[in-house]
Write the structure tokens for this entry.
Amino acid sequence: MTKKLKKKTKISFTVLSDDGKEVLKQGTIDDFIKELHDERDKLPWYFKLWYWYIKRILDKIESEVRSWPFRLKNGFDYRDTWSLDSSIARFVLPRLRHLRDNNHGHPCDLTDKKWIKIQNKMIKSFELILQDFQFIDMKTHKKEQKQIQEGLQLFAKYFQNLWD
């Protein structure tokens, strides 16, 4: 069974001296952490930048690996549900654009021009969902919310007509 070290527990650790030799030191865990930070601060800026870049990549890889079991079991990444509206919009938007740009037909109760106009409204609503929220004024906010609702209602109404 492992014991937890208390902050005042004395430990031994080695550090590099200014001439490059290893020196054995004794101190507390706080002393050890301070030495680590002091050593890191001595590095040139480009090593710090490189370290930061590599650490970000490794953190991203670790995050991906940790999500694999969930993804394999459930078929999606649990992080997709953190903002499900954005996840769905990111999935749907490029496909709606492709459908509009490569249109080979329209619902039988609509003309080609009306169908493209409806598709543009749906696309605009998903673009607004993905747009960074910037509250300009209440009038603009209400207008955008109305556009989002209209586009989503059209998306629901014509959902089964979204085929090529």
